[in-house]
Amino acid sequence: MTTQHQKDYSSIEEEDDKEGATTNILESKPLEENNAVSARPHIPSVSASAVLGESASMPEDTPVCRGVDFSATGMETSTEQGDILSQIMQSLRYTGFQATNLGLAVEQIQQMRTWRLSQEPWQEGDDTELRPLEIRERLRARIFLSYTSNQISSGQREVLRFLVQNKMVDCIVTTAGGIEEDLIKCFQPTYMGDFKLNGRELRKKGINRIGNLLVPNKNYCEFEDWVNPLIETMHQEQDQKWAEWAAELIKNKSNNDDDTTPEKFVWTPSKFIQRLGLEINNEESVLYWAAKNDVPVFCPALTDGSVGDMLYFHSYKRPGFILDIAEDIRRINDLAVRSHATGMIVLGGGLVKHHTCNANLMRNGANFSVFINTGQEFDGSDSGASPDEAISWGKIRITAKPVKVCCDATI
User: Fold this and answer.
1) Which of 96, 243, 309, 349 is most buried when burial is the number of CB atoms within 10 A of its CB?
2) Residues with catalytic roles
3) Confidence of residue 54 (pLDDT cuts 50, 70, 90)
4) Which CA distances in Å does 4 have to 7, 10, 13?
């Protein structure tokens, strides 16, 4: 049984046979000799138009794809590594693919670092104290740096430490691992391994694997031996300050001063982390430099790791130690709201990405943003969400030109 389509097609073939036609019905006539498509008129016109169709002219200012030329004059004999690196970085913008996105990310970070309030005109209704040009030239964007714990586990720790040590960022958001791995490395190193090492065999030997990195159990033991007495000390300080607060409150009540309520001290994750940074007193530590340079470090999931284990164990020995996350959310949100401009550099995804973006939502979005991660948005995860999705939420300003680089941030 044949379909109507098959019958129609057969009838066409029969008509061609009757007429003695030799041209395939799926081809058109050959091109005219004076055509503008090809100098080869024997090509069927349908193929020529599909393959050799005329293209529009590119605008004169369209960038040309071109990488760094190592054979250029002076490059092959140059001993200045900085000059070579500079040329490589400049060439990324026009290399294509993720190299281009990395080049755009470099430009975006340069813009957030060089931004000054003087670039924005003073308008009626603005704070009059901010009108003098010399003041506006001193006010810069507040830069939020966010990273997942694997950045600290890897050799990226030294890069991040350099940024904090030299006050190149103003606020940090990280995970529990980003806190403890930094401190653990002050006691014992992390070792190189392999992605394919057998997990069962490593477990028997008491060695933990992070990708192709190895961390012996004893590293965590030394960290825990160090942090446990600190938690006890901070708990003691908390109780002492609460007793002082209660005494002052009773004093005010006895003096009929009901309108004056003394501020009650409470530990927060950021205060707790700052104390750890001061106590470690090690210049190789990111947290040390953050504490020394007064760069707040926020970790809303501080209990999700070794620190959480220690807090859990401590609660059985002595209940009552409090870490107030509510005070920290106000602190980070206020940092965003009270900024004249903000920039976000987010390495990785998950909690650190959203926490930073959500703080900037409080000010109707960040002015500058760079995301570096391997997440994809097909599953609807925030980790893989594009900067454009963040714009829809108000986490990045609609006038911004954010950049996402799809790669492993250690690269």
Assistant:
1) 349
2) 395
3) confident
4) 5, 10, 14
